[in-house]
């Protein structure tokens, strides 16, 4: 392991100064479950690691009438341990339950999972489905970007030099809304999605018609995808298998998977449709109970 300096600032302003001063040779540590391993193996060789877990803004976990604020350092275990998140933002809870084991979940954060920007990251399809906004801070101030626009390539994202993700903001969930995330993995000892799908729906008062929907897809393209057309075509349709099948077919049209040890292009495309239907089915079931 290459030697590096370590800082653990307690203010956002100090963290930004330290990250900016690193001139690109600095890495931010939120949970560190991937970062430390990459440094240990020499995949990454930062001169400075900035631990942001002591910064109050990055540890916010707040749900009110405006929605959910989730600090970038909040652990996965804290997410699925929150009853309000499990009830109203259940796709996110679903994701956090399957990111590694219990030890990992007590360190890893949704913000870190997003900033790793892996195509198969389990939290990102849920963030897309839940219409999350990423709040980013840097030397030039604060800016916001939609979760579906955050990742730009495998392992790459929109963060510029000196910037860090502060929090994720999701709008309030009205009555008759529900969400779900699920993935397919090739076997239990390979904990990486072949395909992952997050779906969110809002139903009318009867619970029979879809008023709006959002579908996020992971591991089926160089970056996680927002299935915009598949989501929009559900508006006004009955919440039934026929509608889910239409959305699934539209979702399959936008994926551009690769062949690798986890699955073929043909298989991943097929699984995208299967998981889209299943995610929508559970999301509707949850919405009807809300």
Summarize the structure.
The protein is an alpha+beta fold. It has eleven helices and 14 strands.
What does this structure look like?
This protein is of the alpha+beta class and about 290 residues long. The chain is about 35% helix and about 25% strand. The protein has three domains: about 45 residues, Uridine Diphospho-n-acetylenolpyruvylglucosamine Reductase, domain 2 (2-Layer Sandwich), CATH 3.30.43; about 110 residues, Uridine Diphospho-n-acetylenolpyruvylglucosamine Reductase, domain 3, CATH 3.30.465; about 110 residues, 2-Layer Sandwich (Enolase-like, domain 1), CATH 3.30.390. It has eleven helices and 14 strands. The strands form four sheets. A five-stranded antiparallel β-sheet has the order 4-5-10-6-7. Strands 11-12-13-14 form a four-stranded antiparallel β-sheet. It has a three-stranded parallel β-sheet with strand order 1-3-2, with helices on one face. Helix 5 runs antiparallel to helix 8 and helix 10 packs across helix 11. The protein is globular, with a radius of gyration of 19 Å.
């Amino acid at each position: 392991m290459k030697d590096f300096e370590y800082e653990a600032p307690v203010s956002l302003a100090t963290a930004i100064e330290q990250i900016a001063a690193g001139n690109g040779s600095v890495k931010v540590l939120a949970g560190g479950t991937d970062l430390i391993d990459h440094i240990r193996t020499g995949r990454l060789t930062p001169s400075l690691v900035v631990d942001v877990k002591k910064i109050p803004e990055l540890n916010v976990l707040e749900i009110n009438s405006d929605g959910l604020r989730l600090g970038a350092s909040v652990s996965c275990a804290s997410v699925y341990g929150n009853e309000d998140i499990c009830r109203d933002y259940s796709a996110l809870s679903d994701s956090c339950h399957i990111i590694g084991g219990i030890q990992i979940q007590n360190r890893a954060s949704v913000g870190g999972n997003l900033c790793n920007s892996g195509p198969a990251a389990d939290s990102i399809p849920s963030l897309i489905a839940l219409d999350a906004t990423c709040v980013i801070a840097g030397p030039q101030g604060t800016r916001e970007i939609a979760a579906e626009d955050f990742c730009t390539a495998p392992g790459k994202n929109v963060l510029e030099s000196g910037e860090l993700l502060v929090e994720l903001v999701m709008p309030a969930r009205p009555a008759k809304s529900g969400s779900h995330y699920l993935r397919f993995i090739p076997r239990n000892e390979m904990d990486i999605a072949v395909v992952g799908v997050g779906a969110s729906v809002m139903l009318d008062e009867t619970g029979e018609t879809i008023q709006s929907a959002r579908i996020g897809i992971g591991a089926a393209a160089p970056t996680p995808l927002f299935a915009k057309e598949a989501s929009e075509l559900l508006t006004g349709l009955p919440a039934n298998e026929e509608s889910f099948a239409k959305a699934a077919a539209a979702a399959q049209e936008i994926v551009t998977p690769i062949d690798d040890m986890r699955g073929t292009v043909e298989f991943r495309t097929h699984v995208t449709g299967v998981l889209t239907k299943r995610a929508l089915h559970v999301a509707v079931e949850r919405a009807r109970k809300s």
